[in-house]
């Protein structure tokens, strides 16, 4: 198995399951209502904001993998679309799952030497650093989502 395929598996696993943490975004979010997703607990970000933030960086990666310029900015990474119904929430989640799968398939196809090339600009480091960084970042927010969910269900 190529390194790119191994990385793509880790990428897919954090969203769809099969990783060492035995937790994934899809599983954790499947029973979250739109009201729960948008409820603020203490000073924490909402589940919707954390979910969107993880997705925002997937979209940035997807753009670059598709040959588009990198236009993402951290300051916009929590600006999720309005969620005012269960349908809005489910539509967002479905879009995330589709785009994550599209991204995973593109990662799988990367030649191993591409992983050591600069990602969009040298200041961002390599493709490897950015892809694995998104995986780590998603695990971080996944942990927060699990805790907030427990607090909301208490």
Q: What order do the helices and strands follow?
A: HHHHHH
Q: How large is the radius of gyration? A: 16 Å
Helix proportion range: 55-70%
Question: What structural class do helix, strand and pairing data support?
Answer: mainly alpha
List how many beta strands DSSP finds: 0
What's the structural blueprint in terms of helices and strands?
Layout lengths: L2 H14 L8 H5 L4 H5 L8 H19 L20 H23 L18 H26 L2
Describe it for me?
This protein has 154 residues and is mainly alpha-helical. It has one domain: Four Helix Bundle (Hemerythrin (Met), subunit A), CATH 1.20.120. Helix content is 60%, strand content 0%. It has helices at 3-16, 25-29, 34-38, 47-65, 86-108, 127-152. The chain is globular, with a radius of gyration of 16 Å.
